[in-house]
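Hi V.,

Quick status before I head out on leave. The structure for the redesign project is tokenized and pasted below; the design run finished overnight.
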């Protein structure tokens, strides 16, 4: 394995890379573009391009079939290629937070082995109708976007343990959310929620439910019983 750490080096142009590189860290530089030749390094397993000045990627990233961790956070992307959904080796982390993304392509839902998806601090107003492809997802972070609703398919994420939705514009949640049997944490702070679906009471493994700063929320009668059963409820 060849690890190359070039983080915080003030780079403005892409460096030459050894053919054997498997872990590449270019965090916190001043890179404005990525050469298509990067995708020729098909042995890459970890690629960190976070905190640069990137606004686009050249075609061909789907060649990186060995990448299990990809960090594109803290850049200037308004969109990212649907090709990300073809990264079959992406099993650990996909970080897309703090960009200018306005859409969440349905093609990304093909990442059936991905465990962690961070897509916070963007401008996404809706999710694809079918999220069932994220069958291995354990943690989903979508806080501080512009989401007004969740699709019913959110209930198909059977492995999900944490769902972070703070700072959106949600007025309600789908009844299917009660099917998330492995869920431990549900963060709903700073939304526009008025009520909760009764199905949440079925989430026997939920140990933290954060409802703070939903100004018009009306607490359901069952919530006290749910709290007494062991779930920490923050109001």
């Amino acid at each position: 394995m060849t690890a190359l750490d070039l983080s915080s080096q003030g780079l403005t142009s892409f460096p030459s890379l050894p053919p054997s590189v498997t872990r590449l860290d270019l965090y916190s530089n001043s890179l404005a573009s990525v050469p298509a030749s990067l995708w020729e390094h098909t042995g890459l397993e970890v690629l960190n391009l976070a905190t640069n000045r990137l606004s686009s990627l050249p075609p061909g990233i789907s060649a990186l079939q060995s990448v299990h961790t990809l960090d594109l956070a803290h850049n200037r992307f308004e969109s990212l290629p649907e090709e990300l959904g073809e990264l079959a080796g992406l099993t650990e982390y996909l970080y897309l937070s703090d960009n200018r993304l306005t859409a969440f392509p349905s093609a990304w839902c093909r990442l059936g082995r991905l465990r962690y998806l961070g897509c916070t601090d963007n401008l996404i107003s809706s999710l694809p109708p079918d999220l069932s492809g994220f069958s291995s997802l354990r943690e989903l972070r979508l806080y501080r976007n512009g989401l007004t609703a969740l699709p019913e398919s959110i209930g198909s994420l059977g492995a999900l343990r944490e769902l972070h939705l703070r700072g959106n514009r949600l007025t309600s949640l789908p009844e299917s959310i009660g099917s998330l049997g492995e869920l431990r944490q549900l963060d709903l702070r700073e939304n526009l929620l008025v009520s909760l679906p009764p199905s949440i009471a079925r989430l026997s493994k939920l140990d933290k439910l954060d409802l703070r700063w939903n100004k018009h929320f009306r607490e359901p009668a069952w919530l006290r019983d749910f709290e007494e059963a062991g779930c920490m409820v923050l109001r």
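Above is the designed sequence. The helical segments are 222-228.

G. will cover questions while I'm gone.

Best,
W.
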